[in-house]
């Protein structure tokens, strides 16, 4: 009996050791791939020593051409201003895509666009408080930008429509109003045919209001779990709702030029789902042009990451040693996980981004994040030294692209321009 117990304990011990060996992380990581090695050399040669937003112009143009290959001849393209917050970036994409249409989401950027790019056709991407609209008209000076023709205010409720009607009449200015309809996102917008028809009657009764189209954002469909056809049903539901709303408005007795209606839908996650058959005649695309990691989805696999945060390495420590009082933890972690045996500190950090180059770097779960000096851990196989750069891939483009001053624009591995970004304003 004792022999059986000893045999069992030995067997259990061996099984535990085998399980531990199987679960133990394997060592990984490598020096720069050629693409990032070239960027690292160029940044150092250019004397850049601070966190910098790097934009790959070749990849950006390739993404734009890929987007156009799906939209051209089917629906028009509107660039999303907030997701590409740089006039030169928007200019470049406008040139490649052949569009002057932009979707704008804030009063300061509306004022900037109207002043600096007076040829734009602007659709507001969210309903503006009436005070913001009043501020725009109060501050707008006569120029080549004509709000009555080039600006569409987004209206989501009868109450907001009444506010804009009152503003138009108090200022004696014509206004284009585009109706936001809820196609399933439930973030706002018109949810019933009856409400839509009532709002149409309000517009028809006022000579200063002009209905210019619809906007129905459907990016929620790609967040729906793809189980038992649920995502496809969500997509079909959104498109059917949009078609219904569009048909109602087309039947309404409103003076308009049908060829000039803005029937907007889609977004970066969903633009490929639209070909004009659901009543929409344009899609809005922004983030997909630079493809941050939140847009690594099935519908965007043909696009490339085109924007990275490059930040210098300040210090390298091999082996990784945790602060006093927790040295034992770093020893235990590095013994168990060979990918926590070395550490480095970068200039800045705590961004909406993840390290991507060199491969195998990760945030330290033991130390946490820092906006001053971010610690990253790795196997040491990355072979980094102080003044080398670590490259992070943003999770999103809006706001992140504006955190680093002028964008460093690269073409064929060479720094060719520095593009100023929009001021960080809400």
What are the key terms here?
426 residues; alpha/beta; nine-stranded mixed beta sheet; eight-stranded parallel beta barrel; elongated
Question: What topology emerges from the helices and strands here?
Answer:
Blueprint (H helix, E strand, L loop, with lengths): L1 H22 L10 H12 L6 E5 H15 L4 E5 L6 H11 L3 E4 L2 H10 L4 E4 L5 H10 L7 H4 E5 L2 H14 L3 E6 L12 H12 L4 E8 L13 H22 L10 E4 L16 E4 L21 E11 L9 H10 L5 E6 L5 E5 L4 E2 L9 E6 L10 E6 L12 E5 L2 E6 L7
Parallel strand pairs: 1-16, 2-3, 2-9, 3-4, 4-5, 5-6, 6-7, 7-8, 8-9
Antiparallel strand pairs: 1-10, 10-11, 10-15, 11-14, 12-15, 13-14, 16-17
Helix pairs in contact: 3-4, 6-8, 8-9, 9-10
State the secondary-structure class.
alpha/beta
Strand fraction equals: 15-25%
How would a crystallographer describe the biggest sheet? 9 strands, mixed
What's the order of the H and E elements? HHEHEHEHEHHEHEHEHEEEHEEEEEEE
Can you tell me the overall shape? Answer: elongated
Helices, by number, come to: 11
Report the span from N to C terminus.
76 Å
How confident overall, as mean pLDDT? Answer: 91
Strand tally is: 17
Using the CA coordinates, give the radius of gyration. Answer: 27 Å
Could you name the ranges where pLDDT drops below 50 across 5 or more consecutive residues?
6-20
Q: Into which percent range does the helicity of residues fall?
A: 25-40%
């Amino acid at each position: 009996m004792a022999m059986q117990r000893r045999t069992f304990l030995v067997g259990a011990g061996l099984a535990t050791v085998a399980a531990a060996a199987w679960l133990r992380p394997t060592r990984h990581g490598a020096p720069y791939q050629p693409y990032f090695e070239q960027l690292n050399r160029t940044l150092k040669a250019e004397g850049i020593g601070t966190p910098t937003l790097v934009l790959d112009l070749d990849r950006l143009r390739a993404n734009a051409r890929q987007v156009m290959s799906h939209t051209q001849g089917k629906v028009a393209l509107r660039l999303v201003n907030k997701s590409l917050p740089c006039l030169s970036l928007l200019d470049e994409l406008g040139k490649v895509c052949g569009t002057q249409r932009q979707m704008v989401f804030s009063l300061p950027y509306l004022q900037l666009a109207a002043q600096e790019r007076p040829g734009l056709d602007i659709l507001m991407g969210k309903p503006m408080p009436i005070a913001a609209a009043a501020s725009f008209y109060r501050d707008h000076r006569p120029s080549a930008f004509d709000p009555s023709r080039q600006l569409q205010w987004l209206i989501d409720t009868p109450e907001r429509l009444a506010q804009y009607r009152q503003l138009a009449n108090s200022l004696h200015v014509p206004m284009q109003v585009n109706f936001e309809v809820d196609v399933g996102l439930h973030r706002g917008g018109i949810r019933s045919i009856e409400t839509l028809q009532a709002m149409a009657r309000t517009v028809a009764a006022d000579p200063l209001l002009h209905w210019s189209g619809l906007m129905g954002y459907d990016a929620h469909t790609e967040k729906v779990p793809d189980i038992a056809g649920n995502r496809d049903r969500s997509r079909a539901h959104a498109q059917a709702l949009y078609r219904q709303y569009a048909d109602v408005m087309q039947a309404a007795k409103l003076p308009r030029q049908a060829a000039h209606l803005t029937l907007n839908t889609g977004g970066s996650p969903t633009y490929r789902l639209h070909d004009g058959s659901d009543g929409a005649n344009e899609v809005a695309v922004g983030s997909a042009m630079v493809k941050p990691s939140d847009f690594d989805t099935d519908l965007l696999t043909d696009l490339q990451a085109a924007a990275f945060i490059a930040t210098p390495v300040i210090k390298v420590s091999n082996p990784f040693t945790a602060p006093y009082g927790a040295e034992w933890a770093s020893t235990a972690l590095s013994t168990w996980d060979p990918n926590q045996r070395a550490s480095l500190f970068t200039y800045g950090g705590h961004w909406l981004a993840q390290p991507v180059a060199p491969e195998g770097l990760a945030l330290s779960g033991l130390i946490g994040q820092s906006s001053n000096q971010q610690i990253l851990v790795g196997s040491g196989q990355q072979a980094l030294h102080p003044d080398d750069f670590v490259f992070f891939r943003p999770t999103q483009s809006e706001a992140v692209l504006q955190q680093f001053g002028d964008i460093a624009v690269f073409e064929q591995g060479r720094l060719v321009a520095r593009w100023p970004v929009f001021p960080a304003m809400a």
